[in-house]
Amino acid sequence: MHLPVAPVRGAVPPVFKLKPLAPIALAAALALWALPGQAGISTTGSTASNPPGALLGPGDTVAPAATVIIGSGGVGSLQVDGGSFLQLANLSFGNGGTGNGSGLLTGAGSRVELVGNGTGSQAQRLWVGNWGTGVLTVAAGATLDTSTQYSACLIQFHYCDSFVGSAAGDNATLNVTGAGSQVRIGSQLFVGHPGLGIQNLVGYTYGTPGATVTANVNVLAGGELKTDRAQIGTRQWDTSSTGYERSVSNVLISGAGSRWVSVGGETWNSVTGAIFNPGSGISTALDRYAVANIDIRDGGQMRIDGVEGIFSYLNLTTGGGRTDMSLRGAGSSLLFTGDAGVLQVGRTLGSASLEIREGATASGMFYLSVGRDASFGQLLVDGGGSEVSINGTASAAANGTAATGSMDIGRGGGTGVVTVSSGGKILLQTAVARPSGTVLNIGRDASSSGTLNISGAGSTVMISAASVLPGGGVGEALNPQMRVGREGSGQLNVLAGGKLLLDGQAVSTPAASRSTSLLIGGVSESANGGKGIALVSGAGSEIRLSGSDRYIGVGHGPQSNGQLTVQDHGEVSSTSITIGRTGGVGVLKLDAGVLTLTGQQTGSNQAGANLSIGNGGGVGVAMIGNGSSVTISNMGSSGASLNLGGTSNFPLGDGSLTLSGASAIHVIAAPGMATMNLGRDGTAFARVRGASSIDLGDGSLYIGRLSGSDGTLIVSENSTVNAGWVGVGRNKTAGGSVDGGTGTFVLNNSVLNAPTVIIGTNGFLGGNGTINGTVTNYGIFSPGNSPGTMAINGAFSAAAGSRLILEVESDGAGGFNTDQVVFGEGSLLDLSALKVEFRFLGATDPNAFQSSGGFDVDKFFRSRGAGGDSDLAHDLFATASFTAQADQYTISSFTFSADGGAVFSAVPVPEPGTWALMLGGLLLTASVARRRR
Predict the structure, then answer these.
(1) What is the distance between the terminal CA atoms of the chain, rounded to a whole angstrom?
(2) Which range is the signal sequence, renumbered to this chain (predicted)?
(3) Whether 749 contacts 717, CB under 8 Å
(4) Is this model's pTM higher than 0.85 or not?
(5) What is the DSSP letter of 266?
(6) I need a surface site. Which of 191, 264, 447, 734 has the fewest CB within 10 A?
(7) Which of 641, 662, 576, 583 is CA-nearest to residue 615?
């Protein structure tokens, strides 16, 4: 999208010599002005005209070729009142370096027309301040019009513009006040131009080198200023400029009915001379030494009326200067009408600020940027009723493609900061179908940065799309998208009850998907993304996605980096969230936060509610603590899932999860449809601690699900995991289960509630917790935690090839600690293929353990019922096999039986020093042997 920078142009100020008005005419004018109640046209003081001797008044005056100066080197004034009509080629107030001219146009029906042909002495139509001091007031229903008889102005190098302050050193003011009062400016209005001409450079003297032009435009009490286009704080286009001339331009629009309206109009191309309409618009601070201030208050309005097929614009700072604009009070407004309205706060270089306060509004634009093209922009929307509504559209003729509303905070190397506070609102809305939907980008391009702050109860940023095609389809509208750190750097802060809402009501179908999406770090699956950080903090603070196919991606796409923090009872809701996808890196932090994922997508993906951490080759890290709550719920056909290390649609990845501080994850789905994948086909690590819980209902927990995957789950500190089926290195099938990847499950001082637990060939289950369910072991079961006790309240089956590791460790006081498996009373046990490995840790002496009577099967296996512990029947071990190993002993000839205990030989492993001596002896022996030969 190429957005407009308004063209600028100027003409050499007139250097012809103006002669004073005829003394008789001047005297008559003075006499008439002095008569009380006398209506007409009158002048006083220093005035001049070309051709000389032009008469002004006392009645209607029509002199379409005349140029008149009021305040030509001295003090002069002009008054037009009582319904009088004055027509001139052009009119100037305050000339010659010392001129001070003022004008008053007053009264209903009083009218001044400026109709110069734009060349020679008729170049330009109005100067208020033309190297001097100028004041022009249009009041009480009077009209000033420079837009008539315009055909001659459409010839190349015919200049028909108007100026308020046209020379360095000027002090100029234009006042439009009172209901019915109007100033109509054709072509361009230039406010605050630091013009300069140095005799030996350009052949004339004009302006004061190094001086500042001060220009004021006041639209008050129901008055109207209407322009084709305008510049406030122009660029310096004079070749004589010293580089130190400055401009300060002030605009005040105050009072109900007071308005400045830009309407567009034809002009000529400065290169080809072709006639065209560049649209309507106002640009400010077009030079690095330009300062522009715009104040709209008490019901005043600035309105940009768009021309069909052309951009219309308000560009705040276009060229390196500084702009401060404020709208204050109910009824005060900035309004775009028609096609392709564009508001840019910081357009090119420099800086700009726009404040919308106390119930003021800005609306009708289709595009808003804050901080573009190496500029710095700030937007504040503060207070109840204060609102920015990006609800316009752009035609294909204007924009290249038809488009709905969009907003960029930081674009093209710029920096943007937007704050919505104390009940203010920003709304991006569409109810039409266009090739592009509503989009908000923070840090759009690689070298740009942006920040969006939403703070305080009632403060809202809402991006929405309505459905335009019942049932969806190709002609349906597109749902909203938001990118925080699209390709640059983006920061989103939702604080103290603020809300970010994305509402996509366009219907999504498999053939025509319509995603409602928020990416925090990233732009797409294929393009390199940026860095995005989002914070949701405080009760009532919320990011909420509603409507169709809701998705949040944190670190989404190649080289993307994203972080989402939800704390202090802040809330985030969507259908799915991915942390680290397709080469991106994502981080999720919940600290007393709430995450709610519900529903099922209806587009091409059809995914159920899910939290996915590290998929599609991405890296994801999630830290959920301090009483945080995660709910993943979908009663539809696709179920609900928590995934680390790959999903079916986006395989591979590296995911990490820490759940702590009595935090909880609930996965809710139709019977058997809740799933947790820890390493589906990638790599995953999860830690559940501090009385936290994961509840899958009757769903399935996979740890290392598919071949090649690697998953680890450590549950500790009185935490709980609930599931219907658990596979550790094992995958569930329609007919049972098959081996998967590498799975590790450590359960310490915690509880696993699962009717079925299966340890795959490459699976490991250990710890000193409690399992309420049936355990089938094809891999490694290692009760205890160097050492400790594992309780199983359910059946246990040791499949062929499986191993059970029992550890023994000296307690340092002559006794020993051993691993122990405690089975619930009445549990069905199949130990026929059991393979037990005794492991002596550290310096533990197997011989001492044997002497203590420790090698007793009843010390390692127990049954526990209401009456306490009891021994297992020894015939359960009749076909079991036993081996032993030690860290610092070599054990040989080991045998063990449940009834007879252990028989073996164990000798200490030589210390490193002993090995060195033995090696030295071997080397010496070899040397002697060589010598003997």
Answers:
(1) 92
(2) 1-39
(3) yes
(4) yes
(5) -
(6) 734
(7) 583
pLDDT of residue 821: 97
Q: What angle do CA 407, 411, 413 make, to 5 degrees?
A: 170
Tell me, what's the pLDDT at 55?
76
Residues 312/280, Cβ–Cβ less than 8 Å? yes
Pairing type for strands 267-268 and 275-276 reads antiparallel
* Cis, bond preceding 470 (omega within 30 deg of 0): no
Q: Where are the alpha helices (DSSP H) in 230-380?
A: none
Q: How confident is the model at residue 1, as a pLDDT?
A: 44
- The answer to whether 140 and 111 have CB atoms below 8 angstroms apart is no
CA trace torsion 920, 926, 932, 933 (10° rounding): -160
The encoded tokens of residue 743 equal: 């799975």
| C-alpha span between 654 and 561 (Å, rounded) | 14
Query: What pLDDT does residue 39 have?
Result: 67
User: In the structure, how many helices (H) and strands (E) does the chain have?
Assistant: 6, 78
Token couple for 710: 């690697």
Written as six digits, the tokens of 248 are 């300060």
User: Token digits for 6?
Assistant: 């308004």
For residue 389, the SS3 value is strand
CA 277 vs. chain centroid, Å, equals 35
Widest CA span in the chain: 146
CB of 354 closer than 8 Å to CB of 378: yes
Q: Give, as one character, the DSSP assignment of residue 818.
A: E
Extract the residue ranges of the chain whose pLDDT is less than 50.
Answer: 1-37, 914-933
DSSP state of 921: H
What per-residue confidence (pLDDT) applies to 912? 62
Round to whole Å and give the CA distance between 453 and 541. Answer: 12
Q: Which two tokens stand for residue 319?
A: 């060229």
From 191, 183, 184, 64, select the one nearest 118 (Cα to Cα): 64
Spatial separation of the C-alpha atoms in residues 176 and 258, rounded to whole Å: 9
Closest among 375, 387, 455 to 421, alpha carbons compared: 455
Task: Give the number of other CB atoms < 10 A from CB of residue 832.
Answer: 14
**Beta partners for residue 101, in sequence order:** 76, 134
What is the separation of C-alpha 865 from the centre of its chain, rounded to a whole number of angstroms? 59
Could you write out the DSSP letters of every residue in 581-592?
A: ETT-EEEEEEES
Domain ranges of the chain: 404-574, 683-913
Residue count of the chain: 933
407: tokens are 């907003």
3-state helix/strand/coil string of 24-58: HHHHHHHHHHHCCCCCCEEEEECEEEECCCCCCCC
